[in-house]
Amino acid sequence: MASTGKIVEVLFENALETFEEQDAMLNKVDFQEPDPATMQNAGNVVWRSVEQHAPIINGWDLTGGEQDIIEETYPSLLGTPKNDFVLQRADDLRDARFWERRGKASGRQQVTELNKAIANNIALQGSMFYRSNATSGYNFIAEAQALMNERQGAMTQRHFMLNDRDNLTFSSELAGRQTLQGRPESAAWVKGQIGENVAQFNVHTGSFLPNLAGGADPAVAVTVTGNQSFAPEGGSVNTSTGVVTNVDYRIAEIPVSASADYNVGDKVTISNGGAPVNAVGLADKTDTGQPMTFTIVGKPDGTTIQVFPKPIALDDATLSATELAYANIDTVILNGATVNRLNTDATNKTNLFWDEDAVEVLGGTIPAQLFKQFDGMKVISSTMKNGLKMYMVYDGDIASMSFRYRLFTWYGNTVKDPSRAGVAVSY
After folding, report:
1. Is the pTM of this model over 0.70?
2. Cβ neighbours around 413 below 10 Å, total
3. For 81, which of 51, 119, 325, 408 could close a Cys bridge (C-beta 3.0–4.6 Å)?
4. CA 62 vs CA 31, 66, 206: distances in Å
5. Strands 82-89 and 402-409: what pairing?
6. Residue 33 to residue 54: CA distance in whole angstroms
7. Residues 232, 326: contact at Cβ < 8 Å?
8. What pairing do the DSSP bridges indicate for beta strands 73-77 and 287-291?
């Protein structure tokens, strides 16, 4: 550790190693690193396509029966860098172990920010929700399995993450099940993974899961203003120029009598005259018999709520066959329908479940070699095993006998399919 460069590398390598060891979320979602030039020219926003739905036509003669294709999109965003920015004088750096300690602390805080960011987004944007008083961990998780299977969304790897308290309640039973399946009991605790293939989920535990704000339903029932009809959109067409502008397929604005009593992140159902609007299977359009759950993602004003996912009704007579292939609810939301809050606990720690492909992280890149062309500035960078890059830029000042560095990661995350991600709470 004789040279400054070598000492700096000790800090960076400890940060890198700690980050990789404590990454609990990035390896459980879809990771993309978009083309840097594209991101620069697009303002760090890239629009991506989602799974299409195709209407099936019976018969031999299909003359004149051609269907349009609806290519739905969503915006995937890069946020701003997460930085550890330090200035130290020479006499503060005499203990060589400083570099190791600081590197571990920096890596730990960096990965904590990442884990929290992904978990918060799933909690706030995932549309599926249930409350359960199940005494069995398997039954608690199996309810999420039933919901996701009924919805018939695309399936890759499924993950379920228990908060620490619910993990305390259920982990012993879940670990026992894994042992019975031939998996050593000791392995049930490696890296916070409780079990594999528990009701089709890989089950984990995390200390960073957010609380879900809630409370009683508004004292005065909140009702929908006007009949609501929504169609899937492949983009907004300018009638004058013919230019197509991307549209976020996930979002719907619903006019209501009042929005003030709701929180962003609230999970709600909608009922027509007391009869719940039900979810339908995305493939066969069968009524699941279960109310469709939505998450409130915005309140533009006092009489509007924005919800994920966009409710597209199977009985909407204004929609074409191609559009009806995207139906996710059984019936149109009518004027006077009530909006019912589900997360009625004042504050409840969340448990999260999601399909791996439903959540996306974008990794940002910078032209690291460019920094080396500036006098006095040095840079170290590395791509972690999860695909994300870590950077460290540093320099020294002989006038003040000081050293400063900036260690950072850069990413953004998006719940690209809110119908395949959700929240479970126990009571």
Report:
1. yes
2. 26
3. 408
4. 41, 7, 53
5. antiparallel
6. 29
7. yes
8. unpaired
